[in-house]
Write a structure and sequence with these properties.
heterodimer; A: alpha+beta; Thrombin, subunit H; six-stranded antiparallel barrel; six-stranded antiparallel beta barrel; 12 strands; 53% helix; 19% strand; elongated; B: mainly alpha; Arp2/3 complex 21 kDa subunit ARPC3; 77% helix
């Protein structure tokens, strides 16, 4: 027993202290070194900070270079899968485009009205700074979801700036280096975003769950489960994000379930990020005073014009719809008439056939009746026409015989 | 003369292959995440470090592992020094296994590897969750451990093949 304990101690001691043939440091010393590194790093020790900065600059650049072959494979894979879904997407998009065209004008009106009201409550933000950046490293680790972008403090990037793709929220800046920055994606479990659920304006906090999904936590107010789809946008609470930035949606199916943690489906797939927009917003300094009345008037005129345009478009669309309906009805009638015509033609052909059959039957009947008369007369007057040994009349089954019988004897013929 | 130089270069490349692979895997996070598979992730660095520390400790220097850990922290975004610590603990475990093993056996290595990565991930979880206030998804971590363990079989055979047929044959010539 004691020997085995000794063996264990010897093996452990050897593992920690023994240097290999090519090793310059023992494992114990490196372990201690990494613990010191970790502790000093968490205490924000200056020297460690500089080392960190240097490592970051080197690693981000070299990682971008090393990732080139994998990115090529990744992009090719993505291109191929996109290619296969291309036709279906096209059909879907075409239908969506039609409906979106109509919604666009209404949206424009709502936006203008929204700006007007936000200005009234002093909650209107304008873009202060906007920078476009390229995603250098997009490593979606299962534990931490973040990306590195190629813009840093050199390009006026600051901590807490919002990162968007098109107009959809992607995340926020959590680390700024001189040439690069780290973006914590909203899909990360550590990102807590104040959101608002529309319709209903219910406030909640959203946290990341997986690559394409988030989960709602701490829902303020009663979220009544129904079969309605909910849109999730930033609420602007806490002043971190501007309000109204689209994030995702809660599907009707998900919303109908009676559970507290609702799943949010993001509008964007964060595995496909290439270029992002880093922005910060600033409250507009313009107050509602006499000078801004002119601006409001202009806005009101704009709204009026847009409403008129919308009304004209609506009338035209309605007219177009009616004409299409009329055309549809006319087409249906034409098709019905054509069908009836074909049926009548068929009936005529059938009737003609029936007539010809009837004619043949009548002819047959007439012949039969004549034969019957002939046979009756033959019984009565056959002996008057039949050729025998002692007279010179007609042979049976000849035409003359038949005529003779039908004339009821030879006398009648001579008469 | 030129053929000797070329062979020398190839041999040198083969010798540094584990280090190169370690840095590429750390900088590139070699885990096929782009396939978008929901329940799939594994830690290639753990497999590589464990295998080479166990079988060919002279191929993969501890300093290289330490630096790779620092790089990994920077890429993943964890506190700097944490991955180095975990990698080195993995080295300690493999070194201990090497010391106590008389007859190497892949199954035993795998079981030991599983126990080690369970301990390492537990330590990582404790450190991140309780000390540095990071939230970690348990389920993702379990999946990562399971696939890392399963892939050890595959990669140990691949590395064996590489060491025996590529490096070995070049040494003989």
């Amino acid at each position: 027993m004691e020997t085995s304990r000794d063996d264990f101690i010897i093996a452990i001691r050897s593992a920690f202290l023994k240097k290999g043939t090519q090793q310059k440091f023992s494992l114990l010393s490196l372990l201690l070194f990494s613990i010191i590194f970790l502790v000093l790093g968490s205490l924000n020790f200056k020297a460690i900070g500089y080392v960190k900065l240097a490592i970051k600059e080197i690693v981000y650049t070299s990682s971008f270079i090393v990732s080139v072959p994998e990115n090529f494979v990744k992009n090719t894979y993505s291109d191929i899968s996109n290619h296969f879904s291309h036709y279906n997407d096209y059909k879907k998009i075409k239908v969506e485009l039609e409906s979106l065209k109509l919604k666009k004008l209404t949206n424009k009106i709502l936006t203008l009205e929204n700006i007007k009201y936000k200005k009234l409550v002093d909650d209107y933000f304008i873009k202060e700074n906007e920078t476009f950046a390229k995603a250098l490293i997009d490593k979606q680790s299962p534990f931490l979801r973040s990306i590195i972008i190629n813009k840093g403090s050199k390009n006026n990037i600051q901590l807490g700036m919002i990162v968007l793709e098109e107009d959809y929220l992607v995340g926020k800046i959590v680390e700024v280096n001189y040439l690069t920055s780290r973006v914590l994606l909203i899909s990360d479990i550590n990102s807590k975003i104040p959101v608002s659920l529309q319709p209903g304006d219910i406030q909640a906090i959203m946290s990341g769950k997986s690559r394409t999904k988030g989960v709602l936590q701490y829902i303020k107010g009663d979220l009544i489960s129904n079969k309605e789809e909910l849109t999730v946008v930033t609420s602007g609470s806490g002043g971190v994000f501007k309000s109204g930035i689209p994030i995702g949606k809660i599907l009707a199916k998900e919303n109908s379930l009676e559970k507290e943690d609702k799943i949010v489906n993001f509008y964007r797939d964060f595995a496909q990020l290439k270029f992002v927009k880093v922005t910060s917003y600033l409250k507009e300094k313009e107050d509602i005073d006499i000078s801004s009345k002119g601006y409001l008037k202009k806005q009101a005129i704009k709204i009026k014009e847009t409403i008129e345009q919308n009304e004209t478009l609506r009338v035209l669309t309605e007219q177009k719809r009616i004409l299409i309906e009329q055309k549809k009805i006319a087409d249906e009638i034409r098709i019905k008439i054509e069908e009836e015509n074909i049926i009548l033609k068929n009936k005529t052909v059938e009737l003609e056939k029936e007539i010809s059959i009837a004619k043949i039957t009548i002819e047959k009947d007439t012949i039969g009746r004549n034969n019957l008369v002939f046979l009756q007369l033959n019984l009565l007057h056959g002996h008057k026409c039949r050729k025998t040994f002692y007279n010179n009349l007609f042979k049976v089954n000849t035409e003359e015989y038949r005529k003779c019988v039908l004339n009821k004897g030879v006398d009648k013929i001579s008469e | 003369m030129s053929s000797i130089n070329r062979r020398h270069l190839i041999l040198r490349l083969y010798r540094f292959f584990p280090v190169i692979l370690l840095f590429v895997s750390v900088l590139n996070i070699f885990d096929f995440n782009y396939l978008g598979l929901k329940y799939f992730s594994f830690n290639f660095s753990y497999i590589l470090i464990f295998y080479y520390s166990l079988k060919k400790s002279e191929s993969l220097g501890y300093i290289a592992i330490f630096i790779a850990g620092l790089f990994n922290d920077v890429i993943v975004g964890t506190p700097i020094g944490l991955s180095s610590l975990m990698y080195l603990i993995l080295c300690v475990a493999s070194s201990y296994l090497r010391n106590i093993t008389l007859r190497p056996n892949l199954t035993k290595d795998c079981i030991f590897f599983l126990i080690t990565i369970l301990i390492i991930n537990s330590l990582l979880f404790v450190a991140l969750n309780f000390i540095f206030n990071y939230e970690i998804d348990y389920f993702n971590q379990i999946i990562n451990i399971v696939y890392t363990f399963l892939f050890y079989f595959l990669f140990s055979h691949l590395f064996n093949f590489f060491e025996n047929y590529m490096v070995g044959s070049n040494n003989v010539r």
